[in-house]
Structure formats: C-alpha cells, structure tokens
From TrEMBL:
Its EC number is 1.5.1.3. Belongs to the dihydrofolate reductase family. The keyword Oxidoreductase applies. GO terms for cellular component: mitochondrion. It comes from Latimeria chalumnae (Coelacanth). This is Dihydrofolate reductase. Residues 12-192 form the DHFR domain.
Amino acid sequence: MWTATETVDPKPICLIVAACKHMGIGKGGDLPWHLPNEFNYFIDKITSITTAGKKNLLVSGRKSYEPFPKSCMPLPNCYIAVLSRTLNSVPKHAHYLCRDLPSAIKLASTPPLSKEIETIWIIGGVETYIEAMKHPWCELLYLTEIMAEFDCDTFFPEFDRKVYKLVDEFPGVPTGIQEEEGIKYKFHVFKRDATLKN
Ligand SMILES: NC(=O)c1ccc[n+]([C@@H]2O[C@H](COP(=O)([O-])OP(=O)(O)OC[C@H]3O[C@@H](n4cnc5c(N)ncnc54)[C@H](OP(=O)(O)O)[C@@H]3O)[C@@H](O)[C@H]2O)c1
C-alpha cells in the first residue's frame, strides 16, 4: 500500500530498441537479425553508470527476457526485473519478478533499492515500451534504425515525435551510418520535451 510518507526518489527512465523498416523488432520470439556490434552497443548502454557503485534496473517483459543470451550474464552494474503475470519465480539470472511496470518503477525508486539505482532501462517488449513512454520520468528513447526490411511479427509502437524529439548528437552515441553483416543502421536518440505533456 502506497503511503504519503513513503520516500520516492525519482529515477530517469530510458528505453532502448532496434527497429527495422516498418518498425519491426522481433520474429518468432527472437531478434530478426544478427548484428553483434549493434548488440554490443545495447549492452554498453544498459550497463553504463556515471557513479561508481551504482546500478541500473533493467525492466523486461517475460518474452523479451527468454531469448536474452545468458552468456552475457551476469551483466555488470545491473539488476534485472522481469515482468510477468504468470511466472511464480524469478527467472534465472534475473533478480526480481514484478507483476506490472509500476511495481518495477516503485522498486527502483523507493528504499532500499533507490539508494543504489541510477537509471531504469526498459528493454522491451511492446506493452512495456508503450506504458513506459507515458510515464513522466521517461526521458530518452535510444532507437537503432536498422535500414533494411526483415520479416517481423512484433513492432515498436507509434510514438509522438513532438513529445520525443530527435537529438542531433548525443554523448556516447556514434554518428553516421554503421554497417555489419551487409546491413546498414544508424543510432538515434529521442529526448522527451519536458515542457510538453505526453
Ligand atoms: N529489437 C529490439 O530491440 C527488441 C527489444 C525487445 C524485444 N524484442 C523482441 O520482441 C519480442 C518480444 O516482445 P513482446 O512484446 O512480444 O513480449 P514481451 O513484452 O517481452 O513479453 C510479453 C510478456 O511479458 C509479460 N508482460 C509484458 N508487459 C507486462 C506488464 N506491463 N505487466 C506484467 N507483465 C507483463 C507478460 O508475461 P506473462 O505472459 O508471463 O504474464 C507478457 O505475456 C521478441 O521477438 C523479442 O526478440 C526486440
């Protein structure tokens, strides 16, 4: 039960996603492409902290977490919260099981975890992205534009580009067209216009 006396320490919420033409993000429960350098960029962003000793809380829907390569675990500087209404135990290598996104955000922003958490990273899937973008603490959307068409069954939602505005250059984000495996892609960052309501 939420009480008025509870200490809330708001945390920045960031989304990260890679999407191909028509905003496809997934196929058959996995990524439609194999782009190791793009994946390393994703890992680099979600594990980066600016203050030593801090950690990020990664929030993932159950289906996005299932194919996550376990060879990357444990991820440095991270706790992982998996969202599920059906699971009864915390999945392997994750730290928390949450029944909904507000519970995960509350976990990160109230004691005891709030002392440790720097950023809440939303790593998918669709329902979590949609809900997180409406949250007032949501600041940044890291979107890799995969400049190719892949057969997809999961799509990143439409979002209001007057609210989330494309940033020309962003620290730590390479500019220009990248290429690997014969596929071109670009890293983008959209920043929420704090003066607008979503
Ligand atoms: N390209 C990218 O950057 C990227 C990023 C992420 C994912 N993906 C891809 O997208 C696909 C998976 O995404 P998806 O949207 O289908 O599934 P998802 O959101 O990852 O997982 C759906 C499941 O997560 C749980 N869940 C999600 N939102 C919840 C909420 N708000 N509260 C409680 N539980 C919640 C539910 O689990 P229960 O059924 O257990 O209740 C739901 O059935 C995969 O193909 C994946 O590879 C791509």
